[in-house]
Amino acid sequence: MKRLILALLAGILCPCYALCDTKIEAESAAYVNCKLITDSKYSGGKALELTENNAKITFTYQAAERGKCDVYVGYDGLYGGKKVNLAVNGNSVTFDVNGRAESMVGTFFMNAGNNSIVITPNWTWFRIDYIRIATSSSIIQFDIAKNPVDANATDAAKTMYRFLYDNFGKKVISGIMTGDMGSANGNVTQHLDVQAVYKASGKYPALIGFDFMNATGKSASLNYNKSYTTSSIALAKDTYRRGGLPNFTWHWRDPSRSTDAFYTADCTMKISDAMNADGSWNTSSQLYKYLIQDIHTVADYFLSLQKEGMAVTFRPLHEASGGWFWWGREGARPFIKLFRLIYEEMVNVKGVHNVIWIWNAGENDADWDPGEAYYDVVSADIYNSDFDYSSNYASFDKLKSLTKGKKIVALSENGPIPDIDKMVDEEAVWSWWMPWYQTWNGRFVDKTSKEEWKKCMNDDRVITLEDLAAGWAAYSGIQSAEATEGEGKAIYDLQGRRLTGVPARGLYISDGKIYSAGVK
Fold first, then answer.
1. CA-to-CA distance for 325 and 251, rounded, in angstroms?
2. From CA 253, how far away is CA 213, in angstroms rounded?
3. Fewest CB within 10 angstroms: 51, 181, 365, 499, which?
4. Between 221 and 514, whose confidence is greater?
5. What is the pLDDT of residue 38?
6. Quick check: 151 pLDDT over 60?
7. Is there a single domain that holds both residue 463 and residue 485?
């Protein structure tokens, strides 16, 4: 185990970068449904114009050795800003184009021999002049804080954060989002979404996702809505008692109470309506009062967990930069203002100190960063095609760069699970992954084959609920320690961390063997 951890750390701290310096004109690439434009302002005097959704440019780059290279694109954005897709050997990112310029799109692994670099429209009407492949000019190393951003974090929150910190880059935490709450009756292992993972893999996920979508809004008092939230809290408590990680999202229904919607298209809710002209909060406005009421409602649920010595992870205002939720419709500044209000009201006013805070970022969201003092983890939501188990390392690297290597990086929503071998090989071991729900006809568990589920969930680099059966109490006295010869009967959990004694229940390691303590 020690050799494996050291090898992984070596890969994270000393990534393999190749020597590469090549420029390829767009007109020399293979292309379909593109228009060849002749104009002296472009490199080589030509460019390709993409106005159709099915337009495609395929560049081929031959590398002498395997390694990472930076990929730049020269472009001309027609009629305003656009978004463009780029994939290197199937690993894709999205980048912005605006005006005529060159941008560094990302850092990608190049294989020895031929590599495919494909550009397709996310939005149409732009031109591609060339791509340039260069040796990476900088290497960002992780420098993550050992404690959560909340200086008054509870012991439970500190322990959970330390667990994330200790495992990041070495192991990935398995997860699943829950949807329907008509099953389980407080037993998270019997929930249909959790059961779907178990039936596919033979193991239970360690991180379970829940949603406050029915906790606030104009219909929050309805019996169904109250029952949904109450069931979610009960399952979150059961998850924590079993040693797992409860994870909360909040599809925040229209705080104005005009609708029950959270999608931008279905409501007129604007954050700025609760602000003064100078951008400060209009604390006397009804909307501001509703915002505070909703924030305090969710805070009270966290406090109910805090009173029982439990901690959670929380991802507020997710996918904001996409604009499809009301909290992203007005851009970055109102979003940041609201994110900070949530944090400050919960932490400083209500006294919530059992939360690990997550900023759910897009790859190009530098302007949306709420500030490093307001979150512990940065995350991405990535939905690959069915049965595509890519590590999504390019997105991982972008989030690492976006936060200057100062934050833990997680995959907070996904379709197929990323393959563990690919994550390790491509230096993108996410802190956790969490497929969306199987219930409500989501069927996201089915987007990964049973063979892949079994392979990953039975790999010792993937953390399952079975690995954590000793419970959080067993970790309270853990010291970071490596096993050494002659230690005798030292006790370790399955993550290789030393325990103060044999746990009351769960699996543990002693004298090089795995034992079971009180597991039913």
1. 9
2. 7
3. 51
4. 221
5. 98
6. yes
7. no
Q: Are 160 and 50 found together in one domain?
A: no
Tell me, what CATH number does 46's domain have? 2.60.120.260
Beta bridge partners of 83: 96
401-410: burial string, b at 16+ Cβ within 10 Å, e else = bbbeeebbbb
Q: How many Cβ atoms sit within 10 Å of the Cβ of residue 321?
A: 17
388 near 403, Cβ under 8 Å? Answer: no
**Closest by Cα among 117, 158, 94 to 20:** 117
CA atoms within 13 A on the CB side of 223: 0
Looking at the predicted structure, is the pLDDT value of residue 9 above 70?
A: no
Q: How far is CA 360 from CA 269, 294, 319, in A?
A: 21, 20, 6
Cβ pair 396, 361 in contact under 8 A = no
Which domain covers residue 491, as residue numbers?
Answer: 476-520
Residues 334 and 408 in one domain: yes
pLDDT band at 484 (very low <50, low <70, confident <90, very high): very low
Do residues 453 and 382 share a domain? yes
Assess if residue 6 is contained within a domain: no
Q: Do residues 225 and 305 both lie within one domain?
A: yes
pLDDT score recorded for residue 479: 41
pLDDT single digits (tens) 238-296: 999 999 999 999 999 999 999 999 999 999 999 999 999 999 999 999 999 999 999 99
Check residue 272 and report its DSSP letter.
Answer: G
Say whether 182 sits in a helix, a strand or coil. coil
What is the percentage of the chain residues whose pLDDT exceeds 90?
Answer: 81
The answer to whether residue 140 is domain-embedded is no
Please list, residue by residue across 68-77, b when 16 or more beta carbons sit within 10 angstroms of its beta carbon and e when fewer do. bbbbbbbbbb
Looking at residue 2, what is its pLDDT?
A: 36
Tell me whether residue 98 is in a domain: yes
Q: b or e along 101-126 (b: 16 or more beta carbons within 10 Å of the residue's beta carbon)? A: eebebbbbbbbeeebebbbbbebbeb
Is residue 434 a contact partner of residue 358, using CB atoms and an 8 Å limit?
Answer: no
Provide mean pLDDT across the span 85-100: 93
Note the pLDDT of residue 396: 95
The pTM (predicted TM-score) of the whole model is 0.85
Q: Considering the domain boundaries, does residue 264 fall inside one? A: yes
Whether residue 231 sits in one domain with residue 160: yes
Quick one: 201 and 163 in the same domain?
A: yes
332 band by pLDDT with thresholds 50, 70 and 90: very high
